Structure formats: C-alpha cells, structure tokens
Amino acid sequence: MSAPAASVFRPDLLAGQVALVTGGGTGIGLGIASALAAAGATVAIASRKPEHLEPAAARLRADGARVSTVETNVREPEAVAAMVGRVTDEHGRLDVLVNNAAGNFYAPSATLSPNAWRAVVETDLYGSFYCAQAVYPVMKAQGGGRIVSVSMTLHYRGWPLMAHATAAKAGVDALTRTLALEWAPDGIRVNAIAPGPIPTEGVKKAFTAPGGTDADVPAMDEYVARAIPLGRWGTPDDVGQMVAFLASPAGDWITGAIFVVDGGSWLAGGRP
Description:
Blueprint: E1 18-22, H1 27-38, E2 42-47, H2 50-62, E3 67-71, H3 77-91, E4 96-99, H4 114-142, E5 145-150, H5 163-183, E6 188-195, H6 201-206, H7 217-227, H8 236-247, E7 258-261, H9 265-268
Parallel strand pairs: 1-2, 1-4, 2-3, 4-5, 5-6, 6-7
C-alpha cells in the first residue's frame, strides 16, 4: 500500500469510536483502517491470514493509530462471534463494522467448481451477513452503530469470468438495503460502497499475459485513459475516506445507500 493520503477529516472526528475492519490486513481493507484511524477511531483489523495482521498493525501504529488485531474466518459463524466478542471485550464497545473480507479470481463459469463458487459466495455474502448479525446486539445495546459493506460495480452490467463474485456482491447490495430497513429503529445505519478499478493483485492479473509475471503497464495506462473519466486508478484511501464519512456524524441520515466510488468508470462502461 502506498503512503496514506492526508485525511480530509479532523483527527478527532471519530474519537472514542471503535471500528472493526474485516480483511483489514492488506489492500482496500488496510486503506479503510488507515482512514478510520486518521479520523480518530480505535481500529481492530481482522484477517483469515495471521501473517498479514502484525505487519499491517505496525504500519498503522507508525502513523499513530490505536490498533488491535484478530484472526478469523468470516465464513464460519462461530469464528465471527468469537471475533466480535474479543473486540468488544478488549475495547469495551463496537461502533463501526466494515465488511471488507472478500474472495476474487477470474474463472470461466462453465468450468467453475462448486468449491470455488462456495469459497467466494460464502466469504463475500455469507461473511457479510454473519458479521452484521454478530454485531447487531452490541450496537443495539449501545443505541446505534454503523455497518458499511464493500461491494463492487461489476454486477451492475455483468462481467465475464466473475459469476461468483458478481452474484455475491449483488447479494451484498440487497442485504444492505434489507438490514437498513430492519435495523433503522435500533439506530443502526447500514450502507455499502461499490469501488471501481483499484489496481489490486486481481486487477493486475487482468492485464498480465498468460504465463507472464508482470502487468502490461502501457495497457493499464490506456485503460485509464479510455475507461476512467477522472483519469486515474482508484486507491484504498479513496474508499477509506468514504467509509470515514459514513461513520461520522455527516452520515447520520444515510442508510440503505450504495455509494459508487469509481472515478466515473461505471458510466463509461470500459473493460480491461
């Protein structure tokens, strides 16, 4: 991850709040954790891969963040419940949940295996539900909270070789709207962010020739010029700043919304 962008928010905006970010050890999740910490929140980052946690926590602490780590697998309800229990025991409360953990890879639909289908749908969709369900009683008892799920824009028009991920993220959008209606009386705002193209490892693979090891940089530059009206790739910080906005008092009257953060690429309709 590149150096975090300067926060557009006051450093005390989320002071006293505790945020849990799943998939927080790398990429977009780490950018989200960084933005929340820069706005004053105490951040707990969760990952299925423990080797990602301490390096990420060290980077955040180097920037002055208050951060803890927890290993979990969001596909397992018992592990999710243990994660939420550990975070609330350690910090005394839980104000913000960010459902960012996800699985993603290109695969032809005709030969996609049942295990591969389950791995992505259970991580992206089931995991988002299990985490939201686990934090619900905590947030209800506190008088409210914020849940933000990371979706995508690809399912708005379909995307070849991504049937598992697009189906799961469409489910995340529907889940977001339903939970927003159900839990509004409890003061829990539920929203989602649909990021556009951010050069994660999966995106870079789309620009890598079969058998190659490096992305085709000129092709990536051409894609930006053709398909992203604002003229650049997105960054984890772009997503993180939107999460911080939704977690702040500015998001008090927002629930059930899906925010597209993509530099205009969905409107442009470009593909790698």
